[in-house]
Design goal:
single chain, 525 residues, alpha/beta, 4 domains, four-stranded parallel beta sheet, 19 helices, 19 strands, 14% strand, disordered N terminus, Ser-Thr/Tyr_kinase_cat_dom, protein serine/threonine kinase activity, membrane, signal
Length: 525
């Protein structure tokens, strides 16, 4: 059997390619893990170790041959699942964001983490509702540069000693978890390389402990207020019982009788109000009035029942609906922020624009995989940026019969959106209302007059300028309607991530340099 050694440390032999070429449906991962290693597997890995003695399995005993074989199977699946380009010869990152069903499964494969390929530089397991202690097995990948476990429910203590082995780690995100405050993370030398945003609302900062104390005090005070308790119970009944339906009476009260003071937008067939529910939550309420057919009402309720189930940090949260008399309303969680259109007028830096583009396409990829019947209308007016810099897609639509044309339209719209994130303000204004002319103008000037395309206020370095050029190419690929086969959103996400990761690492390194410089100035004074 022909054998080669890849830079990633994976086995690139014929059976490995066979695993990658077979669809997951016809050959499930678990079934493959139950197969024994092929007869010549020992000689294969022996030859690999002769070529590269640094491979993690080289010092293992022959008794662990089965686990080594299993690790190559998991690596093959995980490489493809992460949309890592050029699998299996290049396995540079593990991307299991917003995969709550898959992330725990892959974390359970201890044999894979024991022999973690050296090529992996980034691990992202964010937004998966992971609970329990820190998954310390991933720290066997001591070579990684980036680790993101944010927006989970991890608890217990942090394995500090294991973290110190990650000498290359430059980007860490443990925010929004429930770790125990065993120590002051800010006082540990290893963690000083990261800023507070890496640990915000993780339970690891002193401010988190103070916040929890204040919250406990507030809760104890609320226990004595019977009216608020009744209101909270009412809210729990609505959410836990799965009842997302609001009455006209509730919405009337929430908006002070649909007062002008609560009205924030009015169009021909729609009114938008800011309301406050009886539990104190501020919401946005879109209302349509007038008689409609019973079929339309059934379709409206059916769509709402789907939308209330969608949960993603970059997609507006639909809390419920109202369908009474001649009024239909959708109740959504309200976020403070501005539209992308207004945000771009402030000339945000390149790394912030890239972050917005990356998180928007990841949200689209989430919908494509988990909710294929839901389409999102991505425009600079339909996406907002929160006060914390997080993008939020505001417009969703349920399709009874999703097809390739609707998916292609979503990709086209994202391409236009990406190009608008990069272009000069005056160019966007000049071609406002004509997406095709805007795209054609970008395509015409991208090579010889690229600087006239780019927003000059971004003040790009040479490296960032190249990243912008690559992002423009991706935007033009998305908007190229002449191609016979349109790419999927997941493929676009993978392409953009290749551009995004260097900009993120540069941002972290820049912050560290600034932090060190500032500390030196303090020492001299």
């Amino acid at each position: 059997m022909a054998t080669t050694v890849s830079p990633s440390g994976l086995l690139t032999i014929s059976f490995f390619h066979f695993l990658l070429s077979k669809p997951a449906v016809s050959s499930p991962l678990i079934d493959q893990l139950n197969h024994p290693p092929p007869p010549n597997f020992l000689s294969t890995i022996t030859n690999n170790c002769l070529h590269d003695s640094s491979l993690r399995y080289c010092n293992s005993t022959s008794s662990d041959l089965t686990n080594i074989f299993k690790s190559t199977i998991v690596a093959a699946h995980l490489c493809n699942l992460s949309n890592s380009p050029n699998c299996p010869t290049s396995f540079s990152f593990i991307d299991l964001r917003t995969r709550p069903k898959l992330a725990p499964l892959y974390l359970s494969f201890s044999f894979f983490w024991k022999y973690c390929p050296f090529s992996i530089k980034s691990i992202d397991l964010s937004n998966n509702s992971l609970a329990g202690p820190f998954p310390s097995q991933i720290l066997n990948c001591t070579q990684i540069h980036s680790l993101d476990l944010s927006h989970n429910m991890l608890s217990g203590f942090l394995p500090v000693d294991s973290f110190t082995l990650l000498t290359n780690l430059s980007n860490l995100n443990l925010s929004y978890n429930q770790f125990s405050h065993e120590f002051d993370v800010e006082a540990i030398s290893f963690f000083k390389r990261f800023n507070d945003s890496s640990f915000i609302h993780s339970g690891l900062l002193k401010s988190d402990r103070d916040y929890k104390f204040k919250m406990m005090t507030t809760i104890l005070l609320l226990v004595g207020v019977s009216v608020l308790i009744a209101s909270a119970i009412g809210c729990l009944v609505r959410r836990i019982g799965g009842r997302h339906k609001f009455s006209v009476r509730e919405l009337t009260k929430a908006t002070d009788g649909f007062s002008k003071e609560r009205l924030v937008e009015k169009r021909e067939k729609m009114e938008v109000y800011i309301g406050i529910l009886k539990d104190g939550e501020e919401v946005e309420i879109e209302i349509q009035r007038g008689k409609v057919s019973s079929e339309f009402r059934r379709s409206f309720v059916k769509d709402c029942r789907v939308l209330v189930k969608v949960r993603h940090k970059n997609i507006v949260k639909v809390l419920g609906w109202c369908d009474e008399m001649e009024m239909r309303a959708v109740v959504m969680e309200r976020e403070e922020g501005v539209s992308i259109e207004e945000w771009l007028m402030r000339s945000p830096p390149w790394k912030d624009r890239m972050k917005v583009a990356m998180e928007v396409v990841e949200a689209m990829s989430f919908l494509e995989e988990e909710w294929p019947q839901i389409r999102c209308d991505v425009k600079t007016t339909n996406v907002m940026v929160s006060e914390g810099g997080e993008p939020l897609i505001l417009k969703l639509k349920v399709h009874d019969h999703p097809n390739s044309s609707s998916s292609s339209r979503d990709i086209y719209k994202f391409g236009v959106f990406l190009l608008q994130l990069i272009a000069n303000n005056h160019i966007r204004e000049e071609f406002e209302g004509s997406e095709s002319r805007f795209v054609d103008w970008i395509a015409m000037h991208q090579h010889e007059k690229l600087r006239t395309v780019i927003d000059e206020k971004m003040k790009l370095s040479a490296t960032a300028h190249e990243q912008v050029r690559q992002a423009i190419e991706i935007g033009l690929i998305c908007t190229d309607l002449s191609t016979e086969k349109m790419l999927t959103v997941s493929q676009i996400s993978s392409m953009l991530r290749v551009v995004y990761m260097p900009s993120m690492i540069q941002s972290v390194n820049g912050h560290q340099y600034h932090h060190r410089t500032r500390n030196k100035k303090k020492e001299t004074t």
